[in-house]
Amino acid sequence: xxxxxxxxxxxxxxxxxxxxxxxxxxxxxxxxxxxxxxxxxxxxxxxxxxxxxxxxxxxxxxxxxxxxxxxxxxxxxxxxxxxxxxxxxxxxxxxxxxxxxxxxxxxxxxxxxxxxxxxxxxxxxxxxxxxxxxxxxxxxxxxxxxxxxxxxxxxxxxxxxxxxxxxxxx
Length: 170
Hints:
- By secondary structure, the chain is of the alpha+beta class.
- The chain has helices at 22-32, 97-104, 114-118, 120-138, 152-164; strands at residues 7-12, 15-20, 35-44, 48-54, 57-64, 75-84, 91-96.
């Protein structure tokens, strides 16, 4: 919903695109991935941070943070814990600050926006949330849309859309 700041309409060359923003990613994860809540946490120098990976699943064992450690110039990384409505174990996504900065390079401002410079802790949290939610958004089926992607009409509709979409200049 663009009125809620979940996406922006952006013109690229002669095509209008709807770009998903952070709040849109979160909303889609809740709608499509049965996600209840996603909690981002920043890890700073001096924090005690331990996790394990068992059978490919990450689990935070310990994160102790002293108030004195909180310094936006000493961020080591961030993680997001995804909690589900269903009775299942939380999903944990962990990123080092180098990975976060590399993700920022994908954006138009390359991580040099005032928000990235002044609030890197909040932007790191948004980045790790987006990465964690992507798994559940992109792997969901389209059942909530009432669409069977293997249906012949659906296939034909996609062909018509790809041939005719973005043909008129706005």
